[in-house]
Amino acid sequence: MSEAGSGRITKVVIVGGGTAGWMTAAALSRLVAGGVSVTLVESEEIGTVGVGEATIPSLLDFNRMLGIDEDAFVRATSATFKLGIEFRDWTRLGDAYLHPFGTHGRDVEGVSFHQLWLRQRASGAGDPGSIGDYCLSAVAARRGRFNRPSANPQSVLSTLSYAFHFDAALYAAFLRNLAEQDGVVRVEGRVVAVDKDPDAGSITAVQLADGRSIDGELFIDCSGFRSLLLGDALRVPFTSWQHWLPCDRAWAVPSARQGPLTPYTRATADTAGWRWRIPLQHRVGNGYVYSSAHIDDDAARDALLAGLEGTALGEPRQLRFVAGRRDRLWEKNCIAIGLSGGFLEPLESTSIHLIQSGITRLMTLFPDTGFSTVETAEYNRVMLREYEQVRDFIILHYHATQRSDSPFWEHCRTMALPESLQSKLELWSGKARVFREQGELFTPDSWIAVLLGQGIDPQSFDPLAAVLPAGETARFLAHVRDMIDKTAAAMPTHEQFIAQHCAAPMRQSA
Ligand SMILES: Cc1cc2nc3c(=O)[nH]c(=O)nc-3n(C[C@H](O)[C@H](O)[C@H](O)COP(=O)(O)OP(=O)(O)OC[C@H]3O[C@@H](n4cnc5c(N)ncnc54)[C@H](O)[C@@H]3O)c2cc1C
Question: Which positions are annotated as binding L-tryptophan (predicted)?
Fold first, then answer.
């Protein structure tokens, strides 16, 4: 039953045709068959942010929801498979660890696997190796191998989890094609003004530079950092998190492919931030995310170019941003999805996930013209909490460092933390406890990989880790490690898998 005076939404307007706009359009295109018009306005003149190439496994759910054939998607976007992220030089210069997707080992009688591993390590009776040795995605990544997981839960291969690296422009084009096939109407034009209802203050139409006006009942702001609707028109304030995440600029440049196709993203810590390396089928995406308070633009650009493995395919492009988010992501009849709502730097490749999260929650709470304030508040509550949870996970990487070789790392190592992260760290520091909050994106396995990878050793472990006699624990760990190693060794290489299933057509590399 609707609230008094409210009815069905019949006109949805999406402003912006970047990754956020076309993901939203593809998801909402299913409404068209039910008589809802979905219009997307974008401006070629303005263009898109054009980066955003690494993803996390939740994207598979989005693809499934849209009925996308995965091999066709990989070919169309020149994608590769991603089993995790390798972090180099984050704890100390020369150190490296992997944050893999998937799980570590197998829990025993309700005791988390990492507790058994910690107990074995503490016993001094034989080196259990690194926690990554017990995660199939990590071992396969190190060996440069890939296969899709098995659907059989008894198989070790069922524990593998993966995501993609793809070309952001090709991804938007792929989704545009899907959305247009399903009846989404694309309008080329530049929005120059936003009309609002004088009483309610909600948005009624957007005005284009050529004089056209596009009216609607529900407006999705996918206008990128400009935040034309939520920020400019509805004046929802932005809260900056720059004191925790000081990086505010990036240089990005593609380079020629060289060497084997690694099935993981690389994030290398640098003097005033970090550099990404994202392998695609036709090129490698590279960037340096840095704090402009700690390094000047030219020095950051030089560091990026000096660190490339292959020849640069063009001039580096600069991007500017501030970490943070709008205080509400849904206001009146407008929802901001993508960069218009907030930005967290790409260290854990979470922006596209947050777009997806915004879309699925919008679908769950799809409004009528009454725009229930209770539902809007619920949307804001869960989305804002998710932003904070992701923020905390990213801050952890910066803070948990022993580096003091530059003012940037000195700042990160000594900064005060958000309370939510501080209490997570305290729980970990005692008996290595990790709990997943409701709706939290990152699993305990992710936290464990990064906490141990960043060198935060707990003082002790769960007393229940003595669930197995010591000798049996050692045999169990050795067995798990061996099974994982053999399974990874039997997989095809990443290149072989792609060549066999989903090689992209030859493309211009830039
Ligand atoms: C350096 C960097 C690296 C990143 N790497 C990753 C990554 O690896 N993984 C990840 O998940 N995310 C990453 N992101 C984030 C990711 O790029 C974005 O989340 C994603 O591209 C979505 O952007 P968007 O669609 O919100 O905005 P945009 O791509 O900026 O699109 C905005 C759209 O709005 C339109 N528009 C703007 N103003 C007007 C107007 N007046 N009239 C009409 N149209 C208008 C534009 O034309 C465009 O179509 C990265 C971001 C940055 C800055």
Answer: 348
User: How far does the centroid of ligand 1 lie from the alpha carbon of residue 19, in Å?
Assistant: 6
Evaluate whether residue 402 is within a structural domain: no
Binding-site residues for L-tryptophan: 348
| Nearest atom, ligand 1, residue 19 CA | 25
- Measured CA distances, 242 to 239, 383, 386, 394, 496 (Å): 9, 19, 18, 12, 43
Same domain (yes/no): 350, 222:
yes
| Residue 48 in contact with ligand 1 by CB distance below 6 A | yes
Q: pLDDT tens digits for 114-164?
A: 999 999 999 988 889 999 999 999 999 999 999 999 999 999 999 999 999
Buried b (16+ CB within 10 A) or exposed e, 421-430: beebeeebee
Same domain, 234 and 354: yes
As a whole number of angstroms, the distance between CA 111 and CA 116 comes to 8
* Mean pLDDT confidence for 412-418: 96
Query: Which of the four pLDDT bands, split at 50, 70 and 90, describes residue 469?
Result: confident
Pairing assessment for the beta strands 284-290 and 185-188 based on DSSP bridges: unpaired
The Cα 243–Cα 322 span in angstroms is 10
DSSP notation for 149-206: PPS-TTSGGGG---EEE--HHHHHHHHHHHHHHTTPEEEE--EEEEEE-TTT--EEEE
Q: Give, using CA atoms, the residue closest to atom 16 of ligand 1.
A: 52
User: Does any domain span residue 66?
Assistant: no
* Higher pLDDT pick, 510 / 217: 217
| Residues whose CB falls within 8 Å of the CB of residue 132, separated by 6 or more in sequence, listed in order | 97, 98, 100, 138, 139, 142, 449
Is 322 close to ligand 1, i.e. is its CB under 6 Å away?
A: no
Q: How many domains does the chain have?
A: 3
User: Where do we find the tokens 């205080």?
Assistant: 327
Q: How confident is the model at residue 2 (pLDDT cuts 50, 70, 90)?
A: very low
Q: What CATH number is associated with residue 206?
A: 3.50.50.60
Tell whether 331 and 473 lie within a shared domain: no
Per the structure, the complete domain to which residue 439 belongs is given by: 87-162+427-495
Helix (H) / strand (E) containing 397? helix 373-399
Residue 144 Cα to ligand 1 middle (Å): 30
Q: Which residues are annotated as a binding site for 7-chloro-L-tryptophan?
A: 82
Query: What whole-number distance in Å separates Cα of residue 349 and Cα of residue 57?
Result: 10
Residue 259 lies in a domain: yes
Residue 10 has pLDDT above 80, yes or no: yes
Catalytic residues: 82
